[in-house]
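User: Thanks for the earlier help. One more: Phosphodiesterase. Can you show the sequence and predicted structure together?

Assistant: Of course, both are below.
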Amino acid sequence: MTTARGERPLPVGRAGGAAHQLLAGPARAVGVALGGLLGAAARVTGRRPLHPRGVVLRGTVQVGLDPGAPGAVEPCTAPAVVRVSRAAGLPRPWPDVHGLAVRWERAGRPQALLLSSAGLGTVSRFVLALRRDVTSGPLTTLMPFRTPAGPVVLGAVVTRRVDGGLDVELRSAHARGRWHRWGAVQLDPPHGPSVDSDVRVDPVVHCPDGLATYPWAAAVRRPAYRAARVGAPHPAPLPW
């Protein structure tokens, strides 16, 4: 059976697979409703309803650093484009939900990750968190990826270097497990004025090779992603 990239079938436990399939219907309804709300907000305000302002940085991504990590993928080092943004676009020093969108290519195929500020605990890794800047706390993918060993969540911890660049440690964990080193991103310092280009990151369609998206997660995300792309991006002061 052929499926869209990011939804390719991977072996999962029979009970776990059935449970995830049962979630697809309700998740689709939630996704449609969320997409409708975001689309209406975009039409009223004329700007992106989520992450309207951000900064685009370039650097290098490394994945597959620990072959024993949950959801480990084949090693790869590639140029990366990363957008750092605030979900509501609130000005500093107001806290906001921070986003980290990472895009790279592997053998000519796009790969993407989208992380938002959250916790690293067994429950908080699935819950959005308000932060003052992107370096003041961890981020996660919130929703798990599908792997042969079961659901895996990816996380990130961002630190600022003295030269103004950012170092991102990518981590992975099973739904309730401890975190392991999964990869890393080294981001160059920004050059010149803060810039924001139209960076499209879709972790459903361009799920990293070796991972897959559960149907229910794709059903929630797709309508929201489409609505969130309406409106032009705007440059913003550096969010860290």
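User: Great, one quick takeaway?

Assistant: The helical segments are 14-22, 24-45, 215-228.
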